[in-house]
Specification:
By secondary structure, the protein is α+β, with helices and mostly antiparallel strands. It contains 6 helices and 17 strands. It has helices spanning about 35-45, 75-90, 135-145, 175, 185-190, 230-240; strands at about 5-10, 20-25, 45-50, 60-65, 70, 95-100, 105-115, 115-125, 130-135, 155-160, 165-170, 200, 210-215, 250-255, 265-275, 280-285, 285-295. It has a 17-stranded mixed sheet that branches. Strand 7 and strand 8 form a beta hairpin. Helix 3 runs antiparallel to helix 5 (about 185-190). The longest helix has 16 residues, at about 75-90.
Length: about 300
C-alpha cells in the first residue's frame, strides 16, 4: 500500500460494532507529533495509536496514544487493541505475551486463544496510587444528581494506574443513567484535581451476569463519554479492593459500560491486595477486527 496503513478495531466488544472503537497505525515513525495529533482528531475515536516500529525494542513494541485533544501516557482499550493488531498483523503466529512500551512504561498483555484464534487479552496495569478524596456535594453538582444518590459509605477518590480518575460510587442504576454532566462545574472541579476524568459506578446492572455498571466522562481529553475505559477500570478494580467494597481483598468481576451511548461493552476486572499491601490489577476483554485501509 502506498499510503499509511491503519486498522479499526472494537475493543471490550463481545461482537462487532460494540465496545470502544480504536484506530491503529502501523508506521507511526513516519509522523510528526503534530501529524499524530491531527490524525487522532480526524479519526475522532476516543483514542488512536501509532506503532513506531515492527521490530521490538527492549522486548516490547513502542506505541504512542492520542485522544482527539492530546497525547496520553496510558489508556486501556488502546493497549489491548494495539496488542491485538501486533499479534495478528506483525507477529502473525500464536504468542502468549506482548509488551507495549508506552509513555507510562512497559505494559504486559497476556493473549488467550480459543480453537486456535485469539479470544481475549488481559493487561497487567501499573500498581495503583490513591490520591485525594473529594466532597459529595462537589460531585453531585458536577453530575447533576442529588447528593443522596452518591453512596456515602465509600469515598469519592482520585485513583491512578497510569492515568488518574475520580472514582464515584453511585447507589442505583436509575441514578447512574440519569447523570447529565454540568460541564461548567466539571471544568471548575478539575482545575483543582490531578484527575481530569470522572468514572462512576453502581452495583446494579442491566444484565444479571455482570457485577457493576459504569460510565466515564472526560471532556478535558475531548471525550464527553467513553464507551469502555480500560485504564479507569483498573483504577476502579484497585478502589474496590482497597475499600473492601465486596468485603474482601480480591475481586474477579464483570463491568458493563457504554449502554447510554449505544456502544455496549464488557470489561473483566481482576485485582488482589497482597500481604504487603501491594494491589495487583488486571483488566481484560475481547477485540473485534472491523476494517483496514490507508491514509493518503
Amino acid at each position: 500500500m502506498k499510503g499509511h496503513q491503519f486498522y479499526i478495531v472494537d475493543v471490550f466488544a463481545e461482537k462487532k460494532y460494540t465496545g470502544n472503537q480504536l484506530a491503529v497505525f502501523r508506521d507511526g515513525y513516519k509522523f510528526s507529533d503534530e501529524e499524530m495529533q491531527l490524525i487522532a482528531k480526524e479519526m475522532h475515536f476516543s483514542e488512536t495509536t501509532f506503532i513506531l516500529s515492527d521490530i521490538p525494542e527492549n522486548n516490547g513494541y513502542d506505541v504512542r496514544i492520542f485522544t482527539p485533544a492530546s497525547e496520553v501516557p496510558f489508556a486501556g482499550h488502546p493497549t489491548l487493541g494495539t496488542a491485538y493488531i501486533i499479534q495478528r498483523e506483525i507477529i502473525k503466529q500464536p504468542i502468549e505475551l506482548v509488551n507495549l512500551n508506552l509513555k507510562v512504561g512497559q505494559i504486559p498483555i497476556d493473549l488467550h486463544y480459543k480453537n486456535g484464534e485469539l479470544d481475549n487479552l488481559v493487561m497487567k496495569q501499573k500498581e495503583p496510587t490513591f490520591g485525594s478524596e473529594l466532597s459529595i456535594n462537589a460531585l453531585s453538582t458536577v453530575l447533576n444528581i442529588d447528593s443522596n444518590e452518591i453512596d456515602n459509605r465509600f469515598p469519592i477518590q482520585e485513583v491512578s494506574t497510569g492515568v488518574p480518575f475520580i472514582i464515584v460510587p453511585i447507589r442505583t442504576l436509575k441514578s447512574i443513567k440519569r447523570i447529565n454532566v454540568n460541564t461548567e462545574e466539571y471544568f471548575r472541579l478539575i482545575k483543582k484535581t490531578q484527575a481530569k476524568a470522572v468514572h462512576v459506578f453502581c452495583p446494579e446492572t442491566q444484565y444479571e451476569e455482570n457485577h457493576v455498571h459504569v460510565r466515564m466522562f472526560a471532556y478535558y481529553y475531548g471525550v464527553p463519554e467513553d464507551p469502555a475505559t480500560g485504564s479507569a477500570a483498573g483504577c476502579l478494580a484497585a478502589y474496590l479492593v482497597k475499600h473492601r467494597y465486596y468485603g474482601q481483598n480480591k475481586i474477579d468481576i464483570r463491568a458493563e459500560q457504554g449502554y447510554e451511548i449505544g456502544r455496549p461493552s464488557l470489561l473483566f476486572l481482576n485485582a488482589e491486595e497482597t500481604e504487603n499491601k501491594k494491589i495487583n490489577v488486571y483488566v481484560g476483554g475481547q477485540v473485534q477486527m472491523i476494517a483496514k485501509g490507508e491514509f493518503l
